[in-house]
Amino acid sequence: MHPSQSELLKLKNLGLASVNILHSIGIRSYDDLRRVGPVEAFISIRNRGINASRVMLYALQGALLDVHWNDLDPDLKQRLANEADRLLSAQNSD
């Protein structure tokens, strides 16, 4: 197992499939995920043709906060979803 893979696997909400998806978009560490942010990472995942649901978006945020995605504040989830929807819509209108 690659060292960065084990680092990401230690984060809450991230299993091997999620880590492999993150690697496919160039995220190899906690610092990478923090720098990119959960919304941009989610958008990059979707742009690769991976049909990720909002749960993935919430899981990425939870991984950064060390919180299970289901325990995130509902207002935070809504803000994340709104931002992702806005960015996806902007891409689709181009």
UniProtKB/TrEMBL annotation:
It holds the Pfam family TfoX_C. This is Competence protein TfoX. Residues 5-83 form the TfoX C-terminal domain. It comes from the Bacteria. InterPro entries: TfoX-like (IPR047525), TfoX_C (IPR007077).
